[in-house]
Amino acid sequence: MRCPYCGSLDTQVKDSRPTDDSSSIRRRRICPDCGGRFTTFERVQLRELTVVKRSGRRVPFDRDKLQQSVEVALRKRSVDPERVERMINGIVRQLESMGDGEVPSETVGELVMEGLKALDDVAYVRFASVYKNFREAKDFEEILGKLAEEPEDGPRLKKKPAQSE
Q1: How many structural domains are present in the chain?
Q2: CA–CA distance from 61 to each of 48, 58, 96, 132 (Å)?
Q3: What is the pTM assigned to this prediction?
Q4: What integer is the mean pLDDT of 41-66?
Q5: Domain limits at 58?
């Protein structure tokens, strides 16, 4: 593993342990050349995935990009990082277990929306507004209406009772 500080290829593993959900191995490393310390994660990858964009362009699947998108949607929301990691791992597993190595970007977006809906309504609406390219306030009203109509299985947005004058 290349040292992120000096570029040396001779780094040493000082400690290895599984993550809390046992889906990856966390390794603490040290560079003997510069003394830099850093952490790496090792995960199982079932297959190489390619995302097919709406334009038809094909790009390699990037788990970090997926995680960044989810983190942006969850910014300033109090959601347990462990739940977020489990959601991302679940999405990656679902994508890898699909029959083909090529996945439409729409599939990735829908899986993220589904996962965020279960984690946090505000993050779900934030992600949906970008993913579905909301242009007007009625777009938000529509998605909020759908959230309010869903059966209660956790904290959901509730319609306020109409006030009488």
Answers
A1: 2
A2: 8, 9, 10, 20
A3: 0.63
A4: 87
A5: 47-148
